[in-house]
Every structure is written in structure tokens, then in C-alpha cells.
Amino acid sequence: MPGILPSLLSAVHRFGPYVLAVNMILYFIELQYTQTRSSLDAGAWVGFIWFERVIAGIFTLEYALRIKLAPRKGKYLFSGLGLIDLVSILPFWIGFYPGLTQEQLGLVRGARTLRLLKMFRYSPKLAEFARSMYHNRVRVIPIFLITIMYLMISSTVIYEVERRAQPDVFNVYGDSIWWAVVTSTTVGYGDKYPVTPLGQGATVLMMMVGIGIVGMIFGFFADSFHDSRQPLEPALMEAYCRGVHEEGAEGRSVKALRETHRSNPQFLIFADTVDRYIDQAG
Question: Could you tell me if residue 194 is inside a domain?
């Protein structure tokens, strides 16, 4: 009997990507060809809601099994993958609330797309990429701060320069923030733009700086992807495993290896995996 639940979870996990693909295909067909406000709309085909119930039931079963089989349930519930598993089924169960309107049910239906995040569980490569980004998180802080500073400075400059010349366009400060984001990403909707010589001159400088910031952000993702594909040296893996075996996860040589290679996401991923399995075995 104890082996039934792990086998059932393994089967659900194996077929999860296919269930997710069917879910997204049906969602696209429902939106594209029925023009309904929700799956419970009067003009909706009843099959859509029944397919959704079956699929949501499968993911709910998976979530319950993972809670049941997790060695440390609290750690799973608040982990990234645990929260993704919860988000993937929560909209379906919220839909049973009797006070929801058709428009609100439509938003619940749209929340099904959040299930695509489960690909971080089903795809080992995506999971490895996510772990690499996590271990590179110290590099996110300066990029985030630089982005915030840029948006605040550029939006303030344009707001103060243009709001007198275009009071209808830059009516509130939020309008200038919208302009700064659209301009820095080179989207350029054209709904808001400077007309004064000073505003246009400042915009030229801001666009060049904004392109550099966007490049830094994409560079971070590219580096994380590159790091996730770099193989580890066998000697390094052997040294870490030997240190854990002889001294434990908190041993001096283990900590030294972590400190020396703390800028190597692949090593940190490997080390975390080793520590996790040792912790589970203990």
C-alpha cells in the first residue's frame, strides 16, 4: 500500500505535460471560436467545463499527493514549485464561489494560463535554468536598482518638462511613468511623446540609456542560461561529495568549497541537490 501513492504521483507527473497541452489547446479553442464570457456562459459548450473539471481534478490530485509524500510538508507548501502547484488549481476552486459574475468567471477562466508555470516542474531544463537564475540573484539587485533609478529620473524629467505643454497627455505622474517604460523598451506606442525641444533632447539621452538597461536585463538571462549549460569538473564534484561524506554538510572543507565556488551556479545547484538527498536520507 505505501508504494501505491508514489507510483500514482509518478504516473501523474509523467502525463502532466500532455494534460497541460490539452488544457491549453482547449482553452484556445474556447476563446477563439465560442466568444463566450466564461465556461459557464449560456452559449458555452458543456464539454469545455467538464474537460476543465477533469484536468483540474488531475492537478488537484497531484498537489494532494505531493503534500502527502513530502518529507517536510511546510517546506514544500512554501517552495516555488509548491506555490506553482497551488496557483495552477486555485482559480478552478475559486470558480465555485456562488457570488461571481460572468465577467469574474471569465477572469477565473483566463487564470488557467498560470498552469503553464508547471512546466518548470515537468521540464528538467527549465528547472535547471530557474535554479541558475536563483543562484545568480545577487546580480539582480544592482540591475533592479538601476532600472528603478532610471524610471524615476526619466519620468520625473518628462513630467516636469511636458505637463505644461501637454496637460492632457501628461496629466498625472503615472502618465510619465508609462512613457518611460514604453520608451526604454523601444516599444514606442506613440500615445505619449514629448513636443518641447527640451523634452525631445532629454528623450534622446534617455532612450540610449534605456537601451543599455534593457541589454543588461537580457544579458542577465543569457548568462543564467549559459551557466546552466556548463558542465562541472568531475574532480570538483568528487571533492564535494567526499567532504560531505567525511565531515557532513556543515564541514569545514564543504563550506570552503561553497565559498570558493559561490559564483558558479552549476556547482551550487549540484551542492544543493547533494545536501537535499542527504537530508532526506537522514
Answer: yes
Based on the domain organization, do 36 and 52 belong to the same domain?
Answer: yes
Looking at the structure of the chain, the number of domains it has is: 3
Domain holding 257, by residue range, is 234-281
Please list the pLDDT of the chain residue by residue as tens digits (282 residues).
457 888 999 999 999 999 999 999 999 999 888 888 888 887 788 899 999 999 999 999 999 999 999 888 888 999 889 999 999 999 999 988 888 888 888 898 999 999 999 999 998 778 877 777 777 777 778 888 888 999 999 999 999 999 989 999 999 999 999 999 888 887 878 888 899 999 999 888 888 888 888 888 777 777 666 655 556 677 777 777 887 777 777 778 878 877 777 666 667 777 777 777 666 555
Please check whether residues 202 and 270 belong to one and the same domain. no
Whether residue 132 is contained in a domain is answered as: no
Are residues 168 and 253 part of one domain? no
Are the C-beta atoms of 228 and 132 separated by less than 8 Å?
yes
With b for 16 or more beta-carbon neighbours within 10 A and e for fewer, the 124-151 pattern comes to: eeebbbbbbbebbeebeeeeeeebeebb
pTM attached to this predicted model: 0.68
Written as nine digits, the cell of 79 is 517552495
Inter-residue contact 159 to 195 (CB < 8 Å): no
